[in-house]
């Protein structure tokens, strides 16, 4: 049996990846604040299962509780492979660094960096203990390598995820596990809506992001999700530690 664990599975890229896994007959566990009832229908149509675990990734206690729930649900004799998709992310607040409140800073770092690292650490250990293969994908961004005015926290958190991916991959050499990062580019999601709603003072490049929407240059989440699924399904050729860029495939 194969199962995918997906954070932020209720909408956007997470929902698309969940749907595509289910359509492939792979069971899905969604970890997010809200549920997506359509995923139960996709599961039923494809003889798969979908389980929802409510979790606020910005809260340590909630994250630990979700890990325990997954452990109790997942690790048993018939499990052969786990896909972990660390998709959940937070782009706001978007503003100059000196204007960002400490609580907002801490929440963004917790969701974008601490939670995916903690989840990957946890499931690497559990998979090894139960002799199950783990393929972990960290959703990163081009902002990890290109500084953007108003994105001091977002750029920094994604840069740290890239480095974590490379370090964790080195540690997993010689095992059956792999840790990769995937940069999905610009998509037509709620995150893009948040970016477009920024003021010029907070985000100097906001007009260029508005133009992407106006000119229909945003890719659909299903298209991007399909690229990630294709990469992960070809597990014999997954390059441990690689930071994949969707532009290599589209």
From TrEMBL:
Keywords: Cytoplasm, NADP, Oxidoreductase. Its EC number is 1.1.1.320. The keyword Cytoplasm applies. PROSITE patterns: ADH_SHORT (PS00061). Transmembrane segments: none annotated. It comes from the Bacteria. GO terms for molecular function: oxidoreductase activity. Pfam families: adh_short (PF00106). Its main location: cytoplasm. It is found in: Cytoplasm. It is an enzyme of class 1 (oxidoreductase). Belongs to the short-chain dehydrogenases/reductases (SDR) family. This is (S)-benzoin forming benzil reductase. It comes from Oceanobacillus aidingensis. The lineage of its organism: Bacteria, Bacillati, Bacillota, Bacilli, Bacillales.
């Amino acid at each position: 049996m194969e199962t995918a664990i997906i954070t932020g599975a209720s909408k956007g890229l997470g929902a698309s990846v969940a749907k595509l896994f289910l359509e492939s007959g792979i069971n899905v566990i969604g970890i997010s604040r809200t549920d997506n009832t359509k995923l139960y229908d996709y599961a039923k149509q494809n003889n798969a299962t979908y389980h929802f675990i409510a979790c606020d990734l910005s809260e340590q206690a909630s994250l630990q509780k979700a890990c325990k729930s997954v452990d109790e649900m997942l690790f048993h004799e018939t499990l052969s492979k786990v896909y972990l998709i660390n998709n959940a992310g937070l782009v706001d607040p978007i503003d100059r660094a000196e204007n960002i409140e400490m609580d907002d800073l801490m929440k963004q770092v917790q969701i974008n960096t601490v939670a995916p690292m903690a989840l990957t650490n946890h499931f690497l250990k559990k998979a090894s203990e139960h002799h199950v293969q783990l393929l972990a994908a960290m959703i990163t961004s081009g902002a990890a390598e290109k500084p953007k005015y108003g994105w001091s926290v977002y750029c920094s958190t994604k840069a740290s995820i890239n480095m974590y991916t490379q370090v964790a991959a080195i540690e997993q050499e010689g095992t059956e596990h792999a840790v990769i990062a995937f940069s999905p580019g610009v998509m037509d999601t709620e995150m893009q809506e948040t970016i477009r709603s920024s003021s010029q003072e907070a985000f100097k490049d906001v007009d260029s992001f508005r133009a992407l929407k106006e000119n229909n240059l945003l890719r659909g989440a299903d298209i991007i999700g399909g690229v990630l699924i294709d990469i992960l399904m070809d597990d014999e050729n997954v390059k441990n530690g690689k930071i994949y860029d969707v532009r290599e495939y589209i």
